[in-house]
Amino acid sequence: MKKISIQDAITQGSGEVALHGWVFRERGSNKLKFIVLRDSTTIIQCIFDRQKFENSWDEIDHLQVEASLEIRGELRKDERAPTGYEVQVNSYQVIGKSENFPIVKDQSTEFLADNRHLWLRSRRMTAILKIRSTVFGAIHEFFHKQGFYEYQSPIFQAVQCEGGSDLFSVDYFEKKNEVFLSQSWQLYAEPAIFSLEKIYTIAPSFRAEPSKTSRHLTEYWHAEMELAWCNFKDIQNYGEKLIKHVFKRVLERNKPELAVLERDISKLEPVLKKKFVRMTYTHALKILQEQASLDVEWGKDLRTIEEDKLTALYDVPVICTHYPKKVKAFYMMEDPKNADVVQGCDFLAPEGHGEIIGGSQREHDLEKIKERLRAQGEDPIKYEFYLDTRRYGSVPHGGFGLGVERLIKWICGLDSIKDAIPFPRTMERYKP
Prior knowledge:
Layout: H1 6-12, E1 15-28, E2 32-38, E3 43-49, H2 57-61, E4 68-77, E5 85-96, H3 109-114, H4 116-119, H5 123-145, E6 149-150, E7 156-157, E8 169-172, E9 175-181, H6 186-196, E10 198-206, E11 219-228, H7 232-253, H8 255-260, H9 270-273, E12 277-280, H10 281-292, H11 304-311, E13 318-321, E14 334-335, E15 338-342, E16 344-349, E17 354-361, H12 366-375, H13 384-391, E18 397-403, H14 404-412
Parallel strand pairs: 3-5, 6-10, 12-13
Antiparallel strand pairs: 1-2, 1-4, 2-3, 4-5, 7-9, 8-9, 10-11, 11-18, 13-16, 14-15, 16-17, 17-18
Helix pairs in contact: 5-7, 5-14
């Protein structure tokens, strides 16, 4: 008999079924053994009656959490069962034994991190990973529908994009301190817009930030786009549309997983129903002063506390624009009306989840790029390949980067970004 998933069995509703999975919970008496079986779809209660299995009762009675089984039996509805259905088992086979599975209730965060390879089996992590899969698929779907080409840039790079203090240096054969792990695809993506015009990627990025916050990883997945023949508003519009599309897909496909996570869906629905709030950095400082009693000196970047106070006033992301030039990257374009600010934007998520997108119109003035590189202590000669994009037929263009784990953290309502990725890498953790 063909084996089906537990969810398909529940959908079937009755009759004989063949299932396989792992022991999620077990309990029993001298006469009955109750096994809650799990697979990647959901869980179901399975009942072993001793009268049917007298000769193998000792094996059944000693089944433990995470043993893998194949079973066949009669499915029936029972409101008392965890998912409303149960299987009266007629035959079974133990595929893989499990003894003394180390993860039990109420274990420390550190213990679960040390045993991440096993904690991935939990219903909580399974739910997060399913939502993560939907998010990645929705990002690809969005850009494909918008006519973008998928494009990859190198992970080993010879220049810095976001700042030297964040770089992971790697030994590259005889080269020492000359090659770095990618902080962003951007400097190697911009050359490709003169070929493909509309490009995107989802790839790992690496930041050596000495940060232990709930929002930071040293290795994360970066959804980035770059677009030729665009203006600053186009970049903001694409970012808003992308987030709305991802939320739409998650709410269509992952309500059961959101329920497992006890995520309040009413906090996600405004993202689809409302326009995002847009304001300049200068206006944001005014709002912080008037509505949150926070005085921020003009010219300083917004810290976590300021972002949290600002976004607490709204139930959709705040797109904060026109930051001071001195706190932003060298490639961001000066605003034509005010040389002290750049046409850059950060998308700040509600509920204290912080920046999820950073984007900008790219500076097209060759001399201004050189000047800002020198101001950051960089030698423009190292960036000759990048500067060539401004020498030969430059056009208005821009792009953004979205931190996928931050988006997942927000969607799932997670306390820490570490749960948004299977194996988190942080300042203090590089294994398992």
